[in-house]
Amino acid sequence: MIAEILIVDDNSDIRNILNELIIDAGYKTRLAANYNQALSEIDKKLPDVAILDVKLDKGDNDGIELLTHIKSKNVDVPVIMISGHANIEMAIRSLKHGAFEFIEKPFDQARLLNFISRAVENLSLKNQNKEFENKLFHSYDLIGNSKNISSIRDQIEKISITESRIFITGPSGSGKELIARKIHKKSKRNNKPFIILNGALLDNDKYELELFGEEKKDGSISYGALEKANNGTLLIDHISEIPLDIQSKILRVLIDQKFKRINGSNDIKVDVRLICSSNKDLKNEIHLGNFREDLYHRISVFEINVEPLNNRISDIPLLIKYFSEKISNNYNIKILDIDENDSYILNHNWKGNVRELRNLIERIAILQPETKDKISNIIKESLKSENFEEKITENSLSVPLKEAREKFEKEYLTVQLKKFNGNISKTANFVGMERSALHRKLKGLGIKEFN
């Protein structure tokens, strides 16, 4: 695809020179002769690269305002600033506002074309990385046959077609963002923006700015997550980390469907479907005084709970097979031959849940072991600190033999039951017991059966 360059300069001779030069170099162009024309072109469609004169018709530094406006829409768009009144202070100011390069008039044509070429390449690399990450994420399916995952798949089908607000709860790495993306993808908003605001990654003084945006003194606008997500879906991850004063403002937006930017005087109306997620128990956070109860009821019209991976061991072999195929394909290597019933994997304490399992498979793919034994060694080396057998041995050394045996049997049979999703026949067959004997053993050990 041919890159499109936006040329903004109030001098018609310079505009024409730039236009011919850039077209001859093989690029498309769009032209603007003043501030308002440039603003219109930017808002109509962002260019691949912009060349902005620092001083136009609106003021001494209206090119800087346009630069800020472009960056508020997409920080990755490279902007080359040009000026016939250049000084060091102006150059530094341009670069501080995110300019890709600064060049003085009269400019060296070869140098300018080199800047444009580098800018196009820079944007292309960033877009490729984003595309790769999006494909990697969007291509992932919700894998598992456990009751929990089967239920979530049914819930996604039912609630995606509604406009209900959704609260997704579950431990870190369990797939909350993936579920939110699936809901958005199946909704009528699927061709509109999907924006993520991570409440755990912001400084206390940045929440309001990131949510509502800001109208700056120089007239430029920084758009917040609510405006970016307009007509689409906004996922607020780690909503439990958002301060109480900002929670009250979110509540007001949900009630009124409008807000004001920082320093703004006009109401901004928005139509956003809100999905929130947290790895904390919000009811407990309410009890502790860290979360507003009225906001909780507003955001949790429908609640989805993702269980930790250790509670759905039957999903692990399916996930291993799935990630092995996906990641092998991404790295363009032969499919990893990983034993889906490897005891180290099945019995590992997956604190990082599905993300931790995926990272393990990716580590194996990067190292590209040639044999099953080498794969097994990588798994053991990666997981040995949490090895189930070591944990059992360590916990059993300080108790009598009978108690140690009972402890081992209880943990072992609990794991096997989870592995076979509560199916007694399959569990009995695997452990080498009759169904009736297994029933008695489970009852004697105080293990609750589940279907």
Description:
- This protein has 20 helices and 14 strands.
- The strands form 4 sheets. A 5-stranded parallel sheet has the order 2-1-3-4-5, with helices on both faces.
- It has 451 residues and is of the alpha/beta class.
- It starts with a strand and ends in a 6-residue tail after the last helix.
Q: In one word, what is the shape?
A: elongated
CATH superfamily of the largest domain: P-loop containing nucleotide triphosphate hydrolases
Please outline the major beta sheet.
5 strands, parallel
> What is the fold named in CATH at topology level of the largest domain?
Rossmann fold
Q: Under the CATH scheme, which class of the largest domain? A: Alpha Beta
**Distance from first to last alpha carbon:** 55 Å
Strand content: 5-15%
Widest sheet: strand ordering: 2-1-3-4-5
Structural class computed from helices and strand pairing:
alpha/beta
**What is the residue-averaged pLDDT?**
85
Q: Give the radius of gyration.
A: 28 Å
Task: Enumerate the spans where pLDDT stays under 50 for 5 or more consecutive residues.
Answer: 385-397
In the residues, how many domains can be counted?
Answer: 4
The count of strands amounts to: 14
List keywords for this structure.
451 residues, alpha/beta, Rossmann fold, Helicase, Ruva Protein, domain 3, 4 domains, five-stranded parallel beta sheet, 12% strand
